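Example 305.
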Amino acid sequence: MANVQIVEVGPRDGLQNESVLFTTSQKLEFLGRVIDAGARRVEAASFVNPKLVPQMADAEAVAAGLPRRAGVTFIGLVLNKRGALRALEAGMDELGAVCAASDGFALRNQGMTSDASLAMCCEVVRLARGQAHPAQITISTAFGCPFDGEVDPSRVVEMARLAAASGPVEIAIADTIGVASPGEVSALVERVAAAIRPLPVRVHFHNTRNTGLANVWAALHAGAQIVDASLGGIGGCPFAPRATGNVPTEDVAYMLERSGYRTGLDLDSLIASARWLAGVMGRDVPGMLSRAGVFPKQSAGPAIA
Ligand code: ZN
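Predicted structure in complex with zinc ion:
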C-alpha cells in the first residue's frame, strides 16, 4: 500500500485568494484543525508584500502563534529573497520558493522574468540551506499561463532540472490557473520526475475546470509522490474571477484512501473542519465530501440526514 503525502495549502493558497479576511486567531485555529486531522506539512503563510496581498499581512503574527507539534513542518511561501529573509526570521521551518514557467506571469506576479524567478528560487534554497532549513521550489504556470497561453513542457522540464541543482527537498509543478488535463499531467510529471530523480515531484492543482482529482490521480501514476490540497477546496485565482480553488483535501484523501493509498489523514476530522471553514466563510466550500459524507458511513455522516 503506497503512502501519499498531502501538503495542506489552505491556510496560504486557499485564504490568499479568498475575499473573506480571516483573523490571525481564525488562521491559527485552521492550522490546528488540519494538524489534528493528520497533516504533517502545512503551508502556513506567504511572506509577500502586504499591500499586494492583504490576506497575508499578518504572516509574522501567524508564525509567532503556530500550533507546534512534534513532526509537523510549517512552510513559508516566498516570491523573492526579501520574503525568504522574513520567513526565516519569523521562524518558519521550511521555505517554499516560487518561480513561473512563463514571462507573462512571472512579470506580473513577481516583477521579474521567468529566468530571473528561477535564479531567485535557487538563491532562496541556498540561503535556507545555509541556515540549516529545508526549501523547495514550485514552478507555477507549468501547464498554461493566463497571459502567455500555452507553456512549452520542455521549458518546465529544463527549469526543474536547473532548480534541482540548487539542492531543494522537492520540485513542484503547479497548474496555477487550473487548465491541465490528465494526459498532459502524466506526460509532464514523467518527464520532470526523470529529470530530477531522486528528488521527489510534488504537484499543485486547481480545480478550475473540474479536472483536479483526475489530475492528482494521473500525477501519482506518473511518479509524483506529494500532492498539495486545500481543506474545502477553498481559494481561487486572482486572474480567473469565478475559478474554484485548489483540489479539496478531504476529497483527495477520500479518493486515495478508498483506492488503497495511505494519506495519514482522518476523513471525519477533515469533514468537520471543512464544515467549520464553511461556517467561518459564510458559504459552502467547493469540496464535496463534507456535503455527501464518507462511505461506508462513519460518525460524521452526511450533512443532511
Ligand atoms: Zn495555487
